[in-house]
Design a protein that fits this description.
Largest sheet: none
Order of helices and strands: HHHHHH
Strand content: under 5%
Radius of gyration: 21 Å
Helix content: over 70%
Number of helices: 6
Number of strands: 0
């Protein structure tokens, strides 16, 4: 019965991923990313990880996509702008590497096919996520917070307007 929900959610996630990469306009890419993130939230619900699904919707689908749209609008991207391919071999190499990755992924999936292991009883609960973040992965969690803080300070410095006198600080 879970396949009835999983197959459409997986198809939407894949189609949204293709849309993120293939869309010509950045706003369309952000909307396709929203579809991917919503589909992932559905798959988390299928895994009985309600807390992670809610975090996926609130943090990623809500805040991060809105932030992406804000940055897109802030940068005043114009539609219909012709882009010149700077690295002509890059597209061909991307298709070759993507094909190699796809073949490797199919081989790994087929070779590990078999009965799935059930998830642990506390998987995806707030307590389980909290213990993982603040006990097992405390250092990477704190490093990520420092990196985000540096990014916020850098964005504030870059976005700062010059003083009205025209001189630098």
């Amino acid at each position: 019965m879970e396949w009835v929900i999983f197959i459409p959610a997986a198809a939407l996630a894949l189609a949204g991923g293709v849309g993120v990469v293939a869309a010509r306009q950045p706003v369309h890419s952000a909307i396709a990313l929203l579809i991917v993130l919503a589909s992932l939230a559905v798959t988390y619900l299928l895994l009985a990880a309600q807390f992670i699904a809610v975090l996926q919707v609130i943090i990623y689908a809500g805040a991060i996509v809105v932030l992406f749209l804000f940055v897109i609008m802030l940068l005043h991207t114009r539609s219909g702008e012709a882009t010149r391919e700077k690295l002509p071999r890059q597209r061909r190499m991307a298709f070759i590497l993507g094909g190699i990755y796809l073949v490797t992924l199919v081989i790994a999936t087929v070779s590990t096919a078999g009965p799935l292991k059930p998830v642990a009883p506390g998987f995806g609960t707030a307590q389980d996520v909290g213990e993982a973040l603040f006990v097992s992965y405390l250092l990477p969690f704190e490093l990520a917070s420092v990196i985000l803080l540096v990014g916020i300070v850098a964005a504030a410095v870059i976005g700062r307007r010059p003083p009205p006198g025209g001189g630098e600080d």
